[in-house]
Amino acid sequence: MKILIVTPTPVFPTTGGNRARVLECLKTLESLGHEVHLLHIEREKGDVAAMREHLGERFHAIAYRRPAAEKRRVYVQRLLRRVGSNQGYQWGLDDWWPEGADEQVRALHQHHRFDAVLVEYIFLSRALNLFEDSVLKVIDTHDVFGDRYKMYLSQGMVPQWYSTSKRNEARALKRADAVIAIQRHEAAYYQQLGARRVVVVGHSVELAPSAPRIAGKRLFYLGADNPINVRSMVWFLDNVWPLVRRECADVECDIAGTICQALESREDLNFLGRVDDIAAAYEKASVVINPMLFGTGLKIKTIEALGMARPVVTTAVGAA
After folding, report:
1. What is the mean pLDDT of the chain?
2. Angstrom distance (rounded) from CA 69 to CA 18
3. What are all long-range contacts of 21-28, with beta carbons under 8 Å and residues at least 24 apart?
4. What's the number of CA atoms in the CB half-sphere (13 Å) around residue 284?
5. At the N or C end, where does the chain have fewer CB atoms within 10 A?
6. How far apart are CA 200 and CA 134, in angstroms?
7. 3-state helix/strand/coil string of the chain
8. Residue 159: which residues within 8 A CB-CB, separation 6 or more?
9. What is the pLDDT of residues 106-155, one digit of tens each?
């Protein structure tokens, strides 16, 4: 089959779990013998050279031109929040669809004639309407977005990123012939919203050979600088790390990924920044930590650590 993946997040550099998810999907479909194209809607900047090196002429990009709907929504959100309405944290379903993208997607399909299109996240589901019924249409959901803002408010945080109404989430799902859920309980939720067909596809990682226990006492955390990761890691450093050091004065903690940019520098932590050889970083760890406090979807950093044959200490949320 000739398959088009439409994604708002790049696959390189692979600095977050969502990027790893899209890259694994891409590689899996390629390994099955399909001709896979990637269309990057550039809400997030990526390594274009690396993506072109991997995909060649199968890589396509659309510059993100902020749509009028998004601009209007931002104004309305400010007014609603000013009067104390939580609806000021909600987006319309297609508010993040870039200006002028319809014509570019149609032209790309006209040239390549795709057999299937897979859209990452519901907020790009408008792309599915641009393909005729003979094309298989799939949404890889990643996360639940219906009233997602409530999750942040419950933690005393200002809601971030994307949240919409459950009615809009249902509209998005009905645009697809099939919906991919990353967890079984999320699949049940999508079925209740009226999705035509739901399948559960977790996250696959390459399994490292079983490794001997590492001498020493070294914790390791790898994460992107999104608000949930930052909030969770600050909680760990304030509440758990002092207890660990009280019991093991010689323990070390390595922190890697773009989250290093969002945490205060401290002498009792080793900030590694972006690491190119992730396997080597995991190999040095006695224990991998994932102090995730809240979130939906699958905690890919937990899966990756287990795949690297490392013991993991995490919260109930991180283990879900």
Report:
1. 92
2. 25
3. 21/140, 21/142, 21/182, 21/203, 21/300, 22/120, 22/140, 24/203, 24/204, 24/205, 25/118, 25/140, 28/204
4. 18
5. N
6. 23
7. CEEEEEECCCCCCCCCHHHHHHHHHHHHHHHCCCEEEEEEEECCCCCHHHHHHHHHHHEEEEECCCCHHHHHHHHHHHHHHHCCCHHHHCCCCCCCCCCCHHHHHHHHHHHHCCCEEEEECHHHHHHHHHCCCCCEEEEECCCCCECCHHHHHCCCCCCCCCCECHHHHHHHHCCCCEEEECCHHHHHHHHHCCCCCEEECCCCCCCCCCCCCCCCCEEEEECCCCHHHHHHHHHHHHHCHHHHHHHCCCCEEEEECHHHHHCCCCCCCEEEECCCCHHHHHHCCCEEEECCCCCCCCCHHHHHHHHCCCCEEECHHHHC
8. 89, 148, 149, 151, 152, 153
9. 999 999 999 999 999 999 999 999 999 999 999 999 999 999 999 999 98
102 CB-near residues (< 8 Å, 6+ apart): 130
Q: Is there a contact between 242 and 230 (Cβ–Cβ < 8 Å)?
A: no
Encoded amino acid at 154, one letter: S
Structure tokens at 24: 């694994």
CA 149, distance to chain mean position in Å, is: 16
Contact 291, 240 (CB under 8 A): yes
Arithmetic mean of pLDDT, 83-107: 95
Mean pLDDT lowest among 107-121, 205-219, 290-304 = 205-219
- C-alpha span between 173 and 180 (Å, rounded): 10
Peptide bond into 13 cis (omega under 30): yes
The tokens describing 142, both together, are: 């990643």
Any residues with CB less than 8 A from the CB of 282 and at least 6 apart, and which? Answer: 208, 220, 222, 288, 305, 308, 310
Q: Residue 70 contacts by C-beta under 8 Å, 6 or more apart in sequence?
A: 95, 96
